[in-house]
Write a structure and sequence with these properties.
Radius of gyration: 18 Å
Number of helices: 10
CATH topology: Rossmann fold
Largest sheet: 8 strands, mixed
Order of helices and strands: HHEHEHEEHEHHEHEHHE
Number of domains: 1
CATH superfamily: Vaccinia Virus protein VP39
Number of strands: 8
Oligomer: single chain
Amino acid sequence: MIMNEKVKELVRRKYNQIALQDKEHNQSSCCGSTACCDTIDYTIMSEDYTRLQGYNEDADLGLGCGLPTEFAEISAGDVVIDLGSGAGNDAFVARSIVGEQGKVLGLDFAGAMLTKAKKNAAKLGYTNVEFMKGDIEEMPFENDLADVIVSNCVLNLVPEKEKAFSEMYRVIKGGGHFCVSDIVLEGELPEELVKDAEMYAGCVAGAIQKDHYLEIIEKAGFDNIEIRKEKQIILPDSLLANYMNQEKLSAFKASNTGIFSITVYGQKS
């Protein structure tokens, strides 16, 4: 439990820091630049949101690893919860679908992210988008509240994923569903990456095996689980070289270990 709390505090501290930066700063400050520093580029896994209805540039910090709202089958009038809502990027896209009659609730535990999201919502004049502070492992929501839950590259940061998916099951209405984008593994990461705090906060070291991830979802009670999109994430050699020598780097690249972004859908009967 102590270790889990340390992990949460690490993530909270890092994402409070990122909230004070814009997307361009996140891209240029580390390995998104030509002069790579010794930390991970937090936008390295992100996808292009600009074509989606409801996109708001101020809310896009480039922190996702997929487009979960695109596969979430959100309908007008739905209640949608966005877990790890950050500056509001996915929440605002979801709001464009649910319309005036629906509602979007964003949950995050980083205070600076919540402040940024609330400012963005106020500027947009939205009255049916609400951002609140809370822990995904113990959500401050009543049972059977949401028609849809979405999340983008966040659950891999949660130490107790079993708790997170059980909470999701509790909060989703019967007949509702979730759609999340997340990072998973096939094969084993080198110890140097697993133990690094920056790589954990960067959504790599906290990732688990894909089969185990899907098993956790099934054990939580969800049905009709399917991967709706999958893409491989290639970490640049310039980043990996900060964690291992050339011999270990070559061995890792030859090991067939895969880091993948998956967008997963599941239903609650």
